[in-house]
Amino acid sequence: MARPDLNLLITLDVLLAEGSVARASHRLRLSPSAMSRALARLRATTGDPLLVRAGRGLVPTPRALALRERVGQLVQDAEAVLRPAERLDLTTLVRTFTLRTSEGFVENFGPPLLARLSEVAPGVRLRFVQKSQKDSAPLREGTVELETGVVDKTTAQELRVQALFNDRYIGVVRAGHALTKNRITPSRYAAGKHICVSRQGPEKGPIDDALAAFGLERELATIVGGFATALALARASDLIATVPERHTGILRAGLFSFALPISTPEFTVSLLWHPRLDSDLAHRWLRGCVREVCTQHLARQRGASKKKGLGESPSPS
């Protein structure tokens, strides 16, 4: 069997990206006739028309759509292999990175992260966008370069994942709330009016499952889309917010935080990125910065919590 011409991968990548023989020929600095001949060779090699006429333009076949991402990654990997080794000069690096994060992450980790970048790479700018839903498409498409979140069954399998820290849910109420006095039991916790944090609407979760084991159910007074909103409501009312401890350290200033009187599992907050950026030196450096800032900030937070003390409620036996 004849060995395929691997140069055709570059041609195929550009053709699928442009969806036009004329634009692809211009991008590769080939004549339109030479590009047409290359497309004919690709069709013969793959056994598929790849691009077919639709009105005045061309549209990709199902096979072309299936190949597009794989071919693009192959070309990028090949270019990375053949590219001379680079040295990253942070003092001259000019780049904007888009980070998609859950509410609370920016408030807690954004300031020290921005301070680190300003000190060592003044030309780097971060663009924070909120995670309105769990969808891996922005990482796949390149509109988001880095993301923080909890990995679950909806996370795309091809994404790279690195753990940042473990977190747990805690209860939060305003200063002077009835729960700030005496021992907090499962029944006292469930008896209050609660704030549900959910992007999708009311959902049963691990907190509700743990309460159900005691024959208890909490009353949801309102539903909000983020932890900052939940804490703002708790600060100004008698409602109970249940939020991640490490994600909300700064946001909980002046509020009474307590360990839940029920057993709920910890969860891991991770960094996620698309494999196309795995070897990118600037991206690799940024990932390291995020990890270091989280580690250092949480160490300081733990030290402050030990001095101040978290309102602990013994777990029931």
Keywords:
317 residues; alpha/beta; Arc Repressor Mutant, subunit A; D-Maltodextrin-Binding Protein, domain 2; five-stranded mixed β-sheet; 10 helices; 12 strands; 40% helix; 21% strand; elongated
Question: How would you characterize this protein structure?
Answer:
With 317 residues, the chain is an alpha/beta fold. The protein folds into 3 domains: 7-82, Arc Repressor Mutant, subunit A; 95-162 and 272-303, Periplasmic binding protein-like II (D-Maltodextrin-Binding Protein, domain 2); 169-267, 3-Layer(aba) Sandwich (D-Maltodextrin-Binding Protein, domain 2), CATH 3.40.190. The protein contains 10 helices and 12 strands.
List the helices and strands and how they pair.
Layout: H1 7-18, H2 21-28, H3 32-46, E1 51-54, E2 57-60, H4 62-82, E3 95-101, H5 105-120, E4 124-130, H6 137-141, E5 146-149, E6 160-167, E7 169-173, H7 186-191, E8 193-197, H8 206-212, E9 219-224, H9 227-235, E10 240-244, E11 256-259, E12 267-273, H10 281-308
Parallel strand pairs: 3-4, 3-5, 8-9, 8-10
Antiparallel strand pairs: 1-2, 5-12, 6-12, 7-10, 7-11
Helix pairs in contact: 1-2, 1-3, 1-4, 2-3, 5-10
